[in-house]
Specification:
24% helix, 11 strands, alpha/beta, five-stranded mixed β-sheet
Length: 259
């Protein structure tokens, strides 16, 4: 039976947690992950009790408690991080595993659900005068779960990674953000973001992505999308410029910054 000791360890209040994911990025030991839109302490022995995550939580959902818990296991943490990020000499296991899985599968395969079949779409001309706005969409599918990591339209692309709500809130989505970009959409609050990190890491590691524009809403939970992109870039071990555009719920552009 595993030995436990009484020690200081973090406690997450799921009622307060809005799933922003900032604590995930702040935890250097990989002890916290988003599960069903909520931050969760995955293993007691991964938590060193220093509390770097506490100051990053905008909802005050993380605090310290003293309880019986497994001792902090630095060796287990290092093994977990090596598994997640991969050895310096090669691709990380999760990225390599995904690459192996898609080798025998053509992106244009006619089998499977038609909604997930990859398509490149012809670019549209910008509207003139009082004409209705033309769609600037250049790829299908757009939902990150459905996008094939080896889709041809990803090669050398400028990516627009958009939170699901952005196109509804920002009226200039098609005219200002989308032209010339391949769009991938996701919701960091409602979706399971673990597979998103691995899929984006595969895309970053294999597609020669030129740049990333990350469009998020001003609400705190959308910060989880920033954390996902940061984790994926670290996992892929590549340097890609990322610009974060923050959209207000009133449709205004609140902020634009490089990370």
């Amino acid at each position: 039976m595993a030995t436990t000791i009484e020690r200081k360890i973090i406690k997450i209040d799921e009622e307060k947690c809005d799933g922003c994911g900032l604590c995930v990025n702040a935890c250097h030991e990989g002890a916290i992950q988003l599960v069903n839109g909520k931050a969760k302490l995955m293993r007691d022995d991964y938590c060193d009790g220093l509390g770097d995550c506490i100051g990053e939580c905008p909802q005050d959902a993380i605090s310290f408690e003293v309880r019986e818990a497994a001792p902090y296991d630095e060796a287990a943490v290092q093994a977990n991080m090596a598994k997640s990020h991969g050895a310096a000499a090669g691709a990380c296991p999760s990225v390599q595993g995904m690459l192996d899985a898609i080798k025998a599968k053509s992106e244009e395969s006619p089998r499977g659900c038609p909604s997930a079949q990859a398509r490149s779409l012809a670019p549209k001309q910008a509207p003139q005068g009082g004409q209705p706005q033309e769609s600037a969409l250049a790829n299908w599918p757009t939902q990150l779960t459905l996008v094939a990591p080896n889709a041809s339209y990803l090669q050398g692309a400028d990516l627009l990674i958009s939170a699901d709500c952005v196109p509804f809130a920002y009226g200039g989505f098609h005219s200002d953000l989308l032209p010339g970009k391949v769009v991938l959409q996701a919701c960091p609050k409602l979706d399971d973001t673990g597979p998103y990190v691995e899929k984006l890491a595969t895309i970053f590691a294999t597609s020669g992505i030129h740049s990333v524009t990350l469009a998020r809403m001003e609400v705190p939970c959308c910060g989880g999308l920033v954390a996902v992109v940061r984790q994926a870039l670290a996992m892929a071990d590549v340097d890609v410029p990322v610009e974060v555009v923050t959209i207000g719920v009133d449709g205004s552009v609140q902020d634009c910054e490089r990370i």
